[in-house]
Design brief:
The protein has 219 residues and is an alpha/beta fold. The chain is built from 6 helices and 7 strands. The protein binds guanosine-5'-triphosphate (GTP) and magnesium ion (MG).
Length: 219
Amino acid sequence: MTRVAVEPVEGGLFVKPWIFIRGVPAMKFLPPEGPPEVAFAGRSNVGKSSLLNALVGRRGLARTSNTPGRTQELNYFVPDGYGGEGARLPPMALVDMPGYGFAKAPKAQVEAWTRLVFDYLRGRVTLKRVYLLIDSRHGVKKIDEEVMDLLDSAAVSYQVVLTKTDKIKPPAVSRLVEETRRAIARRPAAYPEVLATSAEKGMGIDDLRVAVARAVQDR
Ligand SMILES: Nc1nc2c(ncn2[C@@H]2O[C@H](COP(=O)(O)OP(=O)(O)OP(=O)(O)O)[C@@H](O)[C@H]2O)c(=O)[nH]1
Ligand SMILES: [Mg+2]
């Protein structure tokens, strides 16, 4: 039944060009709470920035890299054409986050990123939904479970998204979806469905668009 309401918004959200508006290096630089926010979280190099680009259909909007630790701030993206003031607030913002669990950068830096990510996830009132990305080749790791614990205890709704499914065989994707679904079944803030995506090949991107549009509409 909600399908009817979702589709026009979905078209409207992702047909428009999206733009980068700001990078936030620490909690005190967050923009005032306004439009609903949807954030991409996950271990370094899992494919957060690539998935955001696939979602908005703009390669190179969020910067990606082979080297873990590319994204170092909370990066805000919105559909173009809104002034950002009063009634002209954009309908939503997408937030690309630094990765967690990356041990090679200087320790103080890793700690600062991780703190920023955890503080944001725990404390942002306008955060509507987190997409928690898991690399299909690696599955759920201990640090991912810690993030799920945090989201469960802060009652922040999240959905697990498998990334880079082009790197494993289709039967392995189905198995991993099932396995992951079972692993999160008892988690109170987890959305029960697990999405399987490839930013590279475009798999699962339409499903993700619908899911994001629905998350923003759910009030
Ligand atoms: N084969 C394949 N490679 C991908 C896919 N998505 C991302 N990659 C590659 O994975 C690497 C990391 O991608 P990013 O999008 O920068 O990952 P990230 O999670 O934003 O990384 P950090 O910002 O460093 O935490 C890049 O070399 C991408 O090209 C995918 O769906 N398939
Ligand atoms: Mg990134």
